[in-house]
Amino acid sequence: MDALVGKLSSLISQGLNLKNECLKNRIGGEPRRRVQANYYPPSPDPELTLGLAVHTDPNAITVLLQSQGASGLQVIHDDKWLAVAPLPNALVVNLGDQIQVLSNGRYKSVHHRAVSSKVLRVSLAVFYGPNKDTMISPIEELVDDEHPPMYREYKMSEFLDHFVRQRGKRRMAKEIFQVQKVAE
């Protein structure tokens, strides 16, 4: 999994016109990894049951394996929810809050949710991001007069503290670190 995430980090860096190792270096030498299995029992009326509320992932990159046969992951696009159909032998990659901050807003963390289905679904997610001691801020090469910093620097542990305190509410941890625009 580290090799896959390393390749993804390199491709994201290239997409930002940065050196291949830039994101990997900014995420840190000892990244935080977490694996989560999700079980969604069948629901006789899926319209009345939400599997997982709308959210963004607090980490940098999420790699998701969906069970075949039923769609449950949805992403928002143009104010509409779109199903992400599971494909055979395919993984889903979501960019998280830390990529949005590091890219100074050029890449967005993905708003998504999980909905219930009439059939049993299982998914396996691997969350990859900075460890709690890593300092996070927009990458210097992505900040200039036309693109001022959108977020202040913070320690990942500070971000995670805000994230945990927002449990049960609409989580807005990255917004706490946004730089306020000064009126001209």
UniProtKB/TrEMBL annotation:
Classification via Pfam families: 2OG-FeII_Oxy (PF03171)
Hydrolase among keywords: no
Any GO MF annotation of the entry: metal ion binding
Family annotation (Gene3D superfamilies): B-lactam Antibiotic, Isopenicillin N Synthase, Chain (2.60.120.330)
Domain Fe2OG dioxygenase: from-to ranges: 31-130
Keywords, ordered alphabetically: Iron, Metal-binding
SUPFAM superfamilies xref list: Clavaminate synthase-like (SSF51197)
UniProt-recorded name of the protein: Fe2OG dioxygenase domain-containing protein
The organism of origin for this protein: Kalanchoe fedtschenkoi
